[in-house]
Amino acid sequence: MAEEGNEIDLSYEEEAKHDHVDEKKKDKKKDKKRDKEKKEKVECNDVEKLNMKLDKLNVKIEALQLKKADIVKMIEEAQNK
């Protein structure tokens, strides 16, 4: 019976270690998310920089719209068959 008690204690210790590792991973993810938000929140009053950001976003949006149109076209073709 003493051995069974030791096994139970070990399993609790192992669970505690895993929980600790999981907490570290969660903390790292939160830190990365906060850093990313900080980068995005940087306010800039320079009109040229803001226009450049806007242009970059417009390019990304246009690319996504093209992908969307292709996917919609593929869906329509699949439905017509």
Automatic annotation (TrEMBL):
Biased composition (Acidic residues): 1-13
Biased composition (Basic and acidic residues): 14-25
Biased composition (Basic residues): 26-36
Region (Disordered): 1-42
Name listed for the protein in its UniProt record: Uncharacterized protein
Species this protein is from: Castilleja foliolosa
